């Protein structure tokens, strides 16, 4: 605690130093191009021209022409950014991403703190600044900035929506983010698990509205996406590259070919669903909204055909939860020791330097094992959450029973 107090005292300075250092690394290296952000910025206007899915980014790598891979509604959301010149759009988006990271940290800490957030507000707000400084060094966060990805923005909206009390706000937030990028649709499982039926219905309505708006803007374009391009991961990118940290990516590297949705993937997917089910049930019974949300997001990342390593920004709230939530020491230490080396050391770059091209599927045995880093730890995390929270609930139940005293009778 003494170390934390010393760090909290200089938290604003640490955040400033972290931001400057990370910015320097990005603008002097690969990240200065923000190649994914350039896709959004340069191609979004084509949604109004009817050829959104026929064009590719002029700043694509030589071996991978980058198309627009989101639904038409996603392009409509990006349109306001295209009204800025490129430099302004780039730096505005970077600033927005930093603010979203801080928002994610702040909401995470508020969920953990509960009533302590108001009774000791200054402490928890200092912690929010400190954690933002630390998480700028987490590789999924750094790669989000490096590529100019939308992960932090979507995660901030999804987290805010899933814990919102107003059912309409919660449902609309999830439905609209799913309309931009499909993976957040998995969040509806949390509404079902917590019996928030109205939020689930509103999420479906909002998602349907986003799809309908795409058809309204250009029917043929929307039809092409939903009935031809939807579900084609090859268009999104190479399934077996080290960047893809989904179950399908890890299995494909292990088997040496794209497993698709064949029996290896089906077995792994069923296992992931079962483990996530146990973890989610334990989270709901414990009344832990944060870890319930993280559990559902981990399941979505595991099941998605492609989950780039920078999509795993959801590890950030998990790390904060592990530090401050009262769970078994073995669970806390195990997950922190497993996750921290993976997310704070660039294990993805280590693999990329050892693969001939991003399109190569075959890997040496040891390298394919390293390629399981994120999905394997996600599965382990689901098991630990289920066991640790179940154990915590049993301890609380025992404590409650021990604290009950028989009433004295008079007469």
UniProtKB/TrEMBL annotation:
Keywords: Cell membrane, Glycosyltransferase, Membrane, Transferase, Transmembrane, Transmembrane helix. One of its GO terms (cellular component) is plasma membrane. The chain crosses the membrane at residues 134-163, 169-192, 199-217, 263-282, 289-306, 335-352, 372-391. Pfam families: GT87. It is a multi-pass membrane protein. InterPro entries: GT87. One of its GO terms (molecular function) is hexosyltransferase activity. Signal peptide: none annotated. It is found in: Cell membrane. Belongs to the glycosyltransferase 87 family. This is Alpha-1,2-mannosyltransferase.
